[in-house]
Amino acid sequence: MAAIAKLQDERHVFLIVTAETCPPCKRFKRDNLKAVNDMMEEEFADKVRVIHIDLPERSWTGFNNEGTKGEIIPVKVKDRGFLNRFPYFCLVKGDSWNESIKENTDLIYKKYAVGNVTVEGFKIWINRSLKEPNFLQITSSSVISSKLKDKSKKKPSVSKTSTITSTTASTTASTTASSNSSLPDFITNEKPKADSSILPTKGSKAKKKIVISEKSSGTKKTRFIRLN
To answer: Which of 189, 194, 228, 196 is nearest to 210 (CA)?
Structure first.
């Protein structure tokens, strides 16, 4: 009956994970754990419940799936990437916690990544998190991958950049055509081509090339010219 009653508790879970072989964990349990529990009971009793897991060592080896007060713990807490430091603190969505216990579904949670492991630090963080409409932003890897798959199924949208580029190109082409059509027949926007028969020389006007002789040797051909 007690287990069923806990599963009906929809409050969020402030999860604390420590290890007996972890020196920082020992200091936290000695100096801050009781004060944190008292603060949570006083400030957030109607919204958040505290569950503490104290592991024999810094791994899930020997874990019996229970909290320090006999609470049932979802198997998903053992998922790779969930627990990444000691002591560890996170805020788990209440219905997500209960559903994970019953159906082994993914946990929806937010990690406490602030270095201030004090009563006041937790109070500020939890209070701020509860006020944000989407405070539970971090989900397990399987949820993230499913969201990415859903996005990949959507039809690709036409790139705005390509649309603008093609529009600009067509506008430029039409502008050029209209400007050319307004010019007389003998005037165009094309640059004049150089006359290959004209060879400019230093200090004089361009002179005409006249070929006077050619000499062939195998595949090579030598051309002698003079200038008029």
So the answer is: 228
Nearest residue to 36 via CA among 58, 57, 51 = 51
Distance of alpha carbon 102 from alpha carbon 127, whole angstroms: 29
State pLDDT tens for residues 181-197.
443 333 334 444 444 44
Segments of the chain with pLDDT less than 50 = 1-5, 139, 141-145, 148, 159-169, 173-199
Cis peptide leading into residue 87 (ω within 30°): yes
- Please state whether 57 falls in left (phi above 0), alpha (psi between -120 and 50) or beta: beta
Query: Beta partners for 89?
Result: 16
> Tokens 């000695």 belong to which residue?
30
Q: Are 109 and 92 in contact (CB under 8 A)?
A: yes
Compute the residue count for the chain: 228
- Taking CA 149 as the corner, what is the angle to CA 144 and CA 150, rounded to the nearest 5 degrees? 100
| Of 24, 153, 165, 3, the residue nearest 88 (C-alpha) | 24
Specify the pLDDT at position 91: 94
Locate 213 and state its tokens: 């002789």
Single-letter amino acid, residue 13: V
Q: Where are the domains of the chain?
A: 2-149
Decide if domain 2-149 falls under CATH 3.90.650.10: no
Q: What is the per-residue pLDDT for 115?
A: 74
pLDDT at residue number 188: 38
In the prediction, which pLDDT does 57 show?
A: 92
Residues in CB range of 104: below 8 A, 6 or more apart: 74, 75, 76
Stated pTM of the model: 0.59
